[in-house]
Amino acid sequence: MKKILLGLAVLAALGLQANDEMKANMAEMQNGLKSIQDGFSYNNKDGILEGIAKIEKANKMFFDETSAGKFLPAGKKRLAKVSYLSTRTLNSSLKEMKQYVEAGSIIDASDSMAGVMRSCTRCHAIVRGW
Ligand code: HEC
User: Fold this and answer.
1) For the chain (length 130 residues), average pLDDT per consecutive 10?
2) In the chain, which end has fewer C-beta atoms inside a 10 angstrom radius, N or C?
């Protein structure tokens, strides 16, 4: 009995940890998105680049199908691959935006925002049943 309780406590702690890590990373993604938008609005290219780096760092928690599928609701686990793909398109949109900013093509950089938002929403739509 004791062992079972201990096992459950450990599992619960691990679950909480995973959840905390996810929440912290999502807050960081939101932060990054805000830096990017502020950068476009307030004439701050470095702010855009900082925002991109923040999101890229937070997105590192999704490195394969298993890590991306972990947070999907039980009935949606089969969409782990789509969820993982959204993390890849997120990275490529960020990379594209960064290259445009560095090349001084700011309007093209702002177009990359659609790809970023689409990637966030692609995963959220699965998670939230939108
Ligand atoms: C691979 C999946 C995935 C991607 C990609 C993703 N998210 Fe999330 N996000 C989640 C999950 C899972 C939750 C938690 C469930 C919920 O809030 O519906 C979440 C929740 C959030 C929350 C709410 C957190 C809270 O504490 O309530 C924010 C803010 C957020 N995401 C921002 C973003 C932004 C911004 C991006 C893109 C730059 C992004 N997410 C991309 C999976 C993802």
Assistant:
1) 72 71 96 98 98 98 95 94 98 98 98 98 95
2) N
Domain membership flag for residue 53: yes
Question: Is the Cβ atom of 55 under 6 angstroms away from ligand 1?
Answer: yes
Is 7 part of any domain?
no
Domain-located, residue 12: no
Cα separation of the two ends of the chain: 41
Predicted pLDDT of residue 5: 74
Question: 96: domain range?
Answer: 25-128
Of 11, 5, 114, 103, nearest to 49 (Cα)? Answer: 103
Q: Does residue 55 sit within a domain?
A: yes
Q: How far is the CA of 128 from the centre of ligand 1 (A)?
A: 10
Tokens representing residue 16 in the block: 């909480």
Number of folded domains that form the chain: 1
Q: Which of 29, 59, 60, 83 to mutate to test the pocket of ligand 1 (most atoms within 8 A of CB)?
A: 29
48 Cβ closer than 6 Å to some ligand 1 atom: no
pLDDT at 17: 73
Nearest to 62 by CA among 25, 96, 92: 25
